[in-house]
Write a structure and sequence with these properties.
The complex is a heterodimer. By secondary structure, chain A is α/β, with parallel strands linked by helices. Helix content of chain A is 28%, strand content 18%. In chain A, helix 6 links the parallel strand 5 and strand 6 (204-209). Classes of the chains: A alpha/beta, B alpha/beta. Strand 2 of chain A pairs parallel with strand 17 (463-465) of chain B.
Amino acid sequence: MSETNGSNGGAPAGLTKKDFSSDQETRWCPGCGDYAILATVQQFLPELGLPPERIVFVAGIGCAGRFAYYMNTYGVHGIHGRAPALATGLALARSDLSIWVVSGDGDALSIGGNHLIHALRRNVPIKILLFNNQIYGLTKGQYSPTSEEGKVTKSTPFGSLDHPFNPIALALGAEATFVARTVDTDREHQAQVLRAAADHQGSALIEIYQNCNVFNDGAFEAVRGKGRDANQIRLEHSKPIRFGVDSERGVTRGPDGRLRLETVSEVGEDALVVHDAHDPNPSQAFSLAHLSERPNGPTPIGLFRAVERPVFAESMTRELESAREGVGTEDLDALLRSGDTWTVE
Amino acid sequence: MNKATEEIERVVVRFAGDSGDGIQLAGDRFAAATALVGNDLATLPDFPAEIRAPAGTLAGVSAFQIHFASRDILTPGGQPNVLVAMNPAALKANLTELERGGIVIANQDGFSEHNLRKAGYEANPLDDGALDDYQVFRVPMTSMTVRATEGIDGITARDAARSKNLFALGLVSWMYSRPTDATIRWIEQKFAAKPQIMEANLAAFRAGYNFGETAELLQVHYEVKAAPAEPGTYRGINGTTAAALGLIAASVRSGLPLFLASYPITPASELLHELSRHKRFGVRTVQAEDEIAAANMALGASFGGHLGVTASSGPGMDLKQETIGLAATLELPLVVIDVQRAGPSTGMPTKTEAADLLMAIHGRHGESPLPVVAASTPAQCFEAVLEAARIAVAYRTPVILLSDTFLANSSEPWRVPDAADLPEIDPGFATGPNSGEEFWPYLRDERGARPWALPGTTGLQHVIGGLEKEDGTGHISYEPGNHALMTRLRAKKIAGIATEIGELEVDRVDGAEMLVLGWGSTYGAIKGAVRRVRLRGEKVDSAHLHHLNPLPRNTGEVVRSYRKVLIPEMNTGQLVNIIRGEFLVDALSYTKVEGLPIFAEELDDVITERL
């Protein structure tokens, strides 16, 4: 089995979005952010340069869980929260496949939190798409582990008491080698992030802000609605971090070491923090993750971190695959008779 | 000195000491040497869950029992004939089970006032007549070990004293005329990296052996001749190793790479340890982040075309059940090994029980039938695991293989099969469309099994999941009639396995009116008890189930043909309820949940009483 877990350049001739789309009728609510993500992913997949049979989508439970059924690839719709574990087993067994996990904020961060952090720290070659809508949609509107404190939902009529996770900070804390954020309707940006994730060797965590127009409409209005040009802080490696309609604002580091938002004309361009996604030290990425606790104002999107670390069990897999070649009944006979034996005539 | 040699047919020896005394190691080596003599044997390790319970206390006593004979034997024996006690706690914890008049070999140095107090003795039982009914040999094992190791560079008296288990092993090896070469070779290999420890252990072992030969204390030693056995190559094996080899055999015979994902749990961790050594066979082992992940990783590997296996014990099995249910509806091969231990909850992690039968058969929500296979002896774990893998692959289904703590840790001689004689397992991967131009992942074969199409196969892309699937196409379906049909098709597939497995074989005598029916590790005790009863002229038959779901097709016919059916189990009555419910037979039940196996002697009494 040849190795590839991301793109290998040069797409097989003539593959298009259609080749990666199944004939199943999509059944998300009209207006759901999932439609935009599905279309972007299907549009992007030909870029991997792999035929559909070499791609696998592994989904968990939740609205996002249906994603796999709409792909004309191989797919498994598993149980709640366990998609990263199932995908880990598949990735270890088959290094020739490109494996994508589709999960949501409840699936990945609540019931499946353990599998997510361990897949990331191991650097398993899987790409995890975390559809974050800050609500439980499929169970009809309870608060999720990314919902804001005080969130009033069916299960929290007096407001939620839970402090939410910051998925980017959590992934960085879990030693993830690739951490990015994008927005459902921003298809071009999303495709860029998918491309970078596919090129990354190892696990990738992509948080996608996804609007649930039924149970949590407008949660990401600041970065996906009319004001998005003012609020999206687009992180670009090796460039000063600037944002705003005319790039008039930027990120600086204060004397206390904390990142802050400033007007460029007031502080001067040289004062801006330069983004280094490849910095082995995750401190600045972590600070950027905390630049906005809620996506209701200026919020970083793009690639927070992409560093190289050995891919989980890669060399071991090669060793095991070549060891097995040619193993037959003679070797088995020798194994069964190993250790102290005696013979009865 | 020339000492007398007495020939005996069988003997049960129990080594007992602190859990840090190396009792299991001494026992294992004694068993290995005994196997090489050609005796039939069975062993029973019994140790506390605490890794190092406070030294000298009853809670910290670790024991290893071995039954060996010049005829075939079936159990590790009930009452020991010989007790080797390294300290007062070991004596106290085990004395009640020693046969009257039996031999006590006590490490006199271990009977300090301090240790006596910790074991709750007010006076030294070696001195106060408490052991008058036994033959007692007081041997200063610790001090003699220290003396034997004097002169080895870099060995402190404290290090030296730790080798006293090998002194005890040497002494008992002399008593029962065990060969020393294999043990010496083993010590040399095991401690090759630590030459001083190796020297100390060799010195202790030889000192123990020589003490037996020269000291006037012991006047007789014993010989137990080789037991008659079928021609062939033999080795000693415990259930864990047998299961590991069974999995490797299944991998070789199927061509499927072996993939084991497990989370450490007593006593199933040993299987993870054992399999992780076999890189040569391409065995992939993963220590997962939890039990659920382990099951999912194995299932993911199966989806990718490996032989996915996960192993655990009670608490871990509870956690895996949702994933096993997923495997049942995905209809992918998955082997789940449950090394049962005493529950509920954490229970007694190092003690045996067989109370997971109903959980294995019924422990998932919804209708999710799956095959259940149970091993009957340590060596039989090999065959049982191979059978579980065969069924899993042939029927595209998760299979639960039930073992238990006793089977996993006990050992016995195993006649090694020829690899070429083992069943071949054909994965029969799907290679092309099966419905016109299309590929339908739930179009079944004559067994009711669905096609297994591996990712990477051109044109066979499909998505499988936990949602109900339309018959044939596998598309999501909520159609009422389809769900009823799929439920029945899944059940029919599993029930149909009965047509391919052998019939329940009965060990018959003419005119028997009672059948003793067992499953799992009670095999030896049942055979042994029935043999004892028959020697007294009683007529009793026995049969043993290796397939618990589905049951062999003649099971009903067999149980209905007896006036009485007695079912001994290491639970509170699980198989008995299945037999009663399935076949409307008023079966009798004998149950034991003491964290110990059922012994032939006790079952003999039960059978006799109920005849």
